[in-house]
Amino acid sequence: MNKVNLGVAVVTGASTGIGYATARALQKAGFRVFGTSRRAIPERSDGITMLTCDVTDDASVTKLVEKVLAETGRIDLLVNNAGIGLLGGAEESSTAQAQALFDVNVFGVLRVTNAVLPIMRSQGKGRIINISSVLGLIPSPYNALYASTKHAVEGYSESLDHELRTFGIRVALVEPSYTRTAFEENLTKPDRSLAVYDAVRADMEVQMRKSVESGDDPEIVAETIVKAATAKSPKRRYTAGKLAGQVRLLRRFVPESAFDKSLRKQVGLPV
């Protein structure tokens, strides 16, 4: 039994990976946790209440919030974790595919956030944690569209935090690097692949798989999320893991030209 009651938390995309590790860590810290998955999953005995929610559907999001309110009467913490990836040259994706990516990674965040904000405002307090990425800080060849969604989440979150502070609500970003999950196995493929990109795209896929295999445990990201969720005065950004912290420092202090050369060398592109 938890010694403290930190309130009610909602974690989107909590069936596996970072989302599931986060749900468990928050429960251990003292939250009553509701996790979401796009499709129904078998009932678990871990104490986390799982609900179905498609973050691209307004009605589904509304139904989720109504269910949580019916059981608890409040929502104290929202962790926007649901997201998908896309690996390929930017030119290889149609506008429709790009819009579908943004619908999950960006507008999904907006939908769920907008649904819980009236509740948090009426409570006079609340916290929202949006899961970004180091690719919200740096460019990433063959991840242009995915990186764009994370840059959008960064700008949205930082601006929203300024808007909501007067209501007792804070918004924070958590920026992981490569994490050992099934994320890379579920990457969306370009819907109009071009032969001119085949060789480098294949190399990038191999590189990503290796990076994920040697990446951080999801629990490291989860610990960072708990820290952001429970800090009395939260920071605007939290990097999760050693590599993410190093990337943030390099991006901030290394001259742009040197960073550019280093990035191209790291991904195997001509300097």
Automatic annotation (TrEMBL):
Coiled coil: none annotated. Keywords: Oxidoreductase. The keyword tRNA processing does not apply. It holds the Pfam family adh_short. GO terms for molecular function: oxidoreductase activity. The keyword Ligase does not apply. InterPro entries: KR_dom, NAD(P)-bd_dom_sf, SDR_fam, SDR_oxidoreductase. Residues 7-199 form the Ketoreductase domain. Belongs to the short-chain dehydrogenases/reductases (SDR) family. This is Short-chain dehydrogenase/reductase. The lineage of its organism: Bacteria, Pseudomonadati, Pseudomonadota, Alphaproteobacteria, Hyphomicrobiales.
